[in-house]
Amino acid sequence: MTAPVEFHGRAALRLANDRLWVDALATAGPRIVRFGLSGSDRNLLAETPDLGWDTPHGRYELLGGHRLWFAPENPDLVAIPDGDGLVVTSAPDGIALTGAAEAPTGLVRSIRVVLARGAACLELHHALRNVADRPVELAPWSITQLPLGGRVILPDRPATPGHFVRPNRSLVLWPYTSWDDPRFRPRNGLLTLDGQPGPDLKFGHFNEAGWVAYVSDGVMLVRRFDPQPGRPHPDLGCNVETYIGSRYVELELLGPLATVEPGSSAVLVERWEVAATDPLASTPDLRAVAQEMVDAARAA
């Protein structure tokens, strides 16, 4: 089911069926580096092999694609270099990518990639296993880099007629984010961000709908997840965050904060689906397309 490929000189493995294909690094990570529709070589994920930065533990290579971090963010611990030590094993309908144990964090990061024969959905099972001798509080945090030029679609609660004494929505801004940024466009029941280069921009919120989407050049990528309202989340209660800079878009999902005991894991599962869309469709129409995809998947 897997075939060897390359990603900018790095060994990778491809899983494919008659609808989708996905590439993961074979010796580093765990990292998903490419993802696309069968019959097309277009990578729906961003490629940033030239980007990285120095950390107290060595250089961290950004690469692009999809990675697993943890929150709350500690810059000295979350970006642990992962250039070697990966173990790839067979898993039902896919592969399991297990990173090396990290001395600074006491964690093992893993992503199980599931692409069943004939399925129109890619499943990613992320796990952060605590291999230290002490408990740690964290939230699993999956980050997907996407190419600039598209639009992020985030469903939100719409306004409800009547008088209510308590709020039911919030929006979280990072210090460098300006309210005047024209790329952010709130609507009733819908938040959108244009994936255009510019100053750093980051918003977060709690998403109860259980899906987010990115639309670019007539293709929509929908990521589904299970929201967990009522449980504490990092970053003032966010389970979805979006960052836009000068090179890429990041669409991020966060699980709830939890105390992970030695030998236990924090898990985050998401499902990716892709559909062709009308490049001239309005944003509300695109939201309806995404919702139909989500409803159909849940009913299946």
Give an overview in words.
The protein has helices at residues 75-78, 234-237, 283-299; strands spanning 2-7, 10-16, 20-25, 32-37, 47-55, 58-64, 66-71, 87-91, 94-98, 107-114, 121-130, 136-146, 151-155, 172-173, 184-187, 190-194, 201-205, 211-216, 219-225, 240-244, 249-254, 258-260, 265-276. The chain has a single domain (2-160, 167-299), classed as Beta-galactosidase, Chain A, domain 5. The strands form 4 sheets. A 10-stranded antiparallel β-sheet has the order 8-9-10-11-23-19-18-13-16-15, covered by helices on one side. 8% of the residues lie in helices and 49% in strands. It contains 3 helices and 23 strands. Strand 10 and strand 11 form a beta hairpin. It is mainly β.
Described by the principal axes of the CA atoms, the overall outline is globular
| CATH topology-level name | Beta-galactosidase, Chain A, domain 5
Can you summarize the main beta sheet?
A: 10 strands, antiparallel
Number of spatially distinct domains = 1
How much helical structure, as a percent, in the residues? under 10%
CATH class: Mainly Beta
Largest sheet: spatial strand order: 8-9-10-11-23-19-18-13-16-15
Gap from first CA to last CA = 24 Å
Kindly estimate the percentage of residues that lie in beta strands according to DSSP: over 45%
Radius of gyration: 19 Å
Low-confidence stretches: none
| Extended strand count | 23
Compressed to H and E, one letter per element, the order equals EEEEEEEHEEEEEEEEEEEEHEEEEH
Mean pLDDT: 95
Secondary-structure-derived class:
mainly beta
If classified by CATH, what would the architecture be? Answer: Distorted Sandwich
Tell me which oligomeric state these chains represent: single chain
Number of helices: 3
